Fold each of these.
Amino acid sequence: MITLPEAFTQALRAAQRVAVLTGAGISAESGVPTFREAQTGLWAQYDPQQLATPEAFQANPKLVWDWYAWRRKLVRAVEPNLGHHALVSLEQRLPHLTLITQNVDGLHRRAGSRNILELHGDLFATRCFKENTPVEPVDDNSETPPRCARCGSWLRPGVVWFGESLPAAELHQAEAAAARCELFLSIGTSSLVYPAAELPFLALRSGATVVEINPQPTPLSQHAHFVLQGAAGEILPALLSQAFPDEPT
Ligand code: OAD
């Protein structure tokens, strides 16, 4: 079992407001490929950053829709891991925890987290490509992409694509949480994609203690107060048992 810095576990116990930012790394131990590691199987030849754009969808709507259908099928087949579950326990034990995620896989919700801000949307949501209005998700066996019953345009995944703006309400709430927290945990993100990657720096500027949990260094590492190099599925359960030793995990 990993031994965490006492100063960190003390800061967690004392915190009234904690903000957590997660990225694809927290779902890696569930078997969901991270965004920047090589894709597997049929999609190995594609770079996600070439598929997750409005231009790619307009150029080849079926290819992009099928890629998201493949990801939905993959995510449906996996389970939240110990890292997701540890965050649920932390939310139950702490006075106020805001979970900000860049992930679209819905695994935090399936694990039982409540106070979630999905900055990059939801893999299982669907929108009309032309009207940009939410549409009831469709099963993936219909014509791909399915069409909007109202206007006949293509339907698209309810996720944020490169070059698109993030949902304003969620981003505003995430910035407020980062500015108000005493402790900010950045977990399983390469800290490369803005505006999400700005949140730990906003917390730093507001005087919060910033902790990074990632097996690899990132641009945040040199600025964080604590860098815990390891897997979220190992570090977060250890954090729970070391910060709250008298409580059943
Ligand atoms: P990335 O694939 O860029 O980074 C995943 C991070 O997780 C890397 O830093 C890994 O070192 C780390 N990691 C891997 N396994 C881990 C584990 N078991 N525990 C903890 N960390 C682990 O994914 P994101 O940072 O989430 O946005 O990418 C951010 C955004 O880039 C995505 O949301 C996506 C993309 O643009 C959109 O699609 C809009």
Note: The first strand starts at residue 18 and ends at 22.
Amino acid sequence: MEIFLYARLVEHWQGVLLTAGNSEVDKLGEYGLYWNERYECMPEDELRELQLERLQATVKRAFFNVPFYRKAFQAIGLEPGDIKSLDDLQKLPFTTKQDLRDNYPFGMFAVPMSEVVRIHSSSGTTGKPTVVGYTRHDIDVWAELMARALVCGGTTRHDIIQNAYGYGLFTGGLGVHYGAERLGASVIPISGGNTKRQIMIMKDYGSTVLTCTPSYALYIAEVMAEMGIRPEELKLRCGIFGAEPWSENMRQEIEKRLGISAVDIYGLSEVIGPGVGIECQAKNGLHVFGDHFLVEVIDPVTEKPVAPGQLGELVITSLTKEALPVIRYRTRDITTIIPGTCSCGRTYVRVARFTGRTDDMLIIRGVNVFPSQVESVLLEMGGTEPHYLLIVDRQGALDTLEVKVEVSDFLFSDKVRGLEELEKRLVSELESTLGISVKVTLVEPKTIERSEGKAVRVIDKRKI
Ligand code: DLL
């Protein structure tokens, strides 16, 4: 498979080099092109200077245009002029999703509605949706960042991008779309769903890049196999997947099943949408576009920064957004800052792929459990499919965890003993990883609901 992928990559780059202008070839780094080398590889002291200038402007914009921020600053006796260095970021108050909800729908906007050209919104499954707005300039910046992200992830303007992120209020579809057009690639705005048609189009149009959630990529691979289509019959070579947590094992599984190289892309509506950060071809952490976002990783309880390498909650401050500047936004996403520099030459801070969210973290009998830990174990062990569900319940005073997972086809038709052995091995491995007792229920292939967007992995019956 690796040789086949390598051949496809060489073929692609030969096409790029043959048709690229000199300027494009000049930008060829060890791992491919940069979209905007000046900013992506900016010397660190220059970047810090730019960040400070932009932070000061953002703080002023928020203070003078958003009553919520003015009140929050005044409550702690802070004026925009007090921000004199990047370290002063610590003096600023945090912003939470609840603050956006309290100011629903447009109360956090820093510009009059006449300047807002686009409105997106979160799905609102955990309460009132949060509404986000963009000026024309914000849309322009977003397209630039998504063009950078696509290139960083391995895409060029010679690619045909099948964009299977949902189009609509969700930022995934239009975010990737504008970036792809800015890059000059050919984008297929197919959105999510209608999986057989996705595969037919992928085959007939020769799509080379797939963009969607990792769980949907996996589902596409499954339907492809059912249709008897092998990865070698497609031109697909690269996947840019995000919008939900996924493990390294899941990456390998998707890469194997689709015959592609897959990278992780991160973003959130409140901050801009996709394009806050992305992995490069080194696949060692996500580069955060530091000329547009400042990141901190804090201990969610003490609210103090943690040392690089330690897990904590990612906090983001926007540096260039006009319609909805966010100051120290508590993302609830768990990651760590990766120390050191990256071989791709980008100078941005890198964060590790996300373990989950603080509000995804299940506390079962006092032990912290993340669905991603379960995913890693299931995929590591083999014999099961990457389709699983965590069901948490309470019996009397005791919390229980059941992991429902689909058995691989070849095992399902196997003897009962084989299944019993697999179940035992899974229980033992999960218990030693999680530190709590677990019930494993093996279910028939294709019985757990598939997702065309963000997958639902947990049913917590304790809350019902
Ligand atoms: O999911 C934006 C997006 C679209 C990102 C397409 C990447 C690709 P929201 O719907 O507002 O925005 O959800 C944001 O999704 O706070 C994380 O919890 C989660 N998330 C996004 N990307 C990743 C990722 C979009 N790569 C929320 N890994 C965030 C883990 C992710 N979680």
Note: The chain is about 35% helix and 25% strand.
